[in-house]
Write a structure and sequence with these properties.
alpha/beta; Metallo-beta-lactamase, Chain A; 6-stranded mixed sheet; 32% helix; 26% strand; globular; binds zinc ion
Length: 251
Amino acid sequence: MIDKKNEFTIYPIAVLQDNIVWVWVHNSNAVVIDPSISAPVEKWLLDRNLSLVAIFQTHHHEDHIGGTKELIKKWSDAKVVASKKERKRIPFQTFSVDNDDTFNLMDSKIKVIEVHGHTNNHIAFYISKNNMKYNILFPGDTLFGGGCGRLLEGTPKQMFESLNKLNSLPKNTRIYSAHEYTENNLKWALTLEPEDISIVERLKVVQNKRERGLPSLPSTISEERKTNLFLRAKNIEELSILRRHKDNWKC
Ligand SMILES: [Zn+2]
């Protein structure tokens, strides 16, 4: 129904205050990434007659795993893919993965990229498919539109290395972050770089989308390289200063 041959079909379900549950659809199957809650996701899938084949978990926070238990009651064959180092904090995982693991699902190849910083053992999912001109990244709470995750467990060094890993992906990789933070992040970035035309222009585009009720995402690696101060940070020290500044900034 909603699957187009030469496109990845990925849809947002906006839940809670600013979480986005992404649903990747292929034929009549679906993969859900970080379901914060179950009810709107279940309804979305049932309304479209889709069968849930897997849930990807980027990390253990409740606003990412909160809906999983209910969803696997309904779709008991769905795999729950999570870091094998998080068996305690994501105990219902059924398909445990490690850094650099790859697996096939929905005619695509999925690669696991470990990205410490926001939490320990946070992972990102990178998806590629033959004959596709672009790839897909689900970075969870590591990379946001114009920002990065708070350092709740990791160090600035770990986040710097994680962002470098993601920055080394092809520039047309599409980024599906787990929160709608882009507008806020770009406003903050402009307090430090008020003359930066790329950031000014991106903020306008994002505000226009938000006013029309659309998500600001996906973005791309090339867009983030231009407008995300964290991705532009040249060293750990610079990233650390930016992170502290953002943590203390009030819109
Ligand atoms: Zn989180």
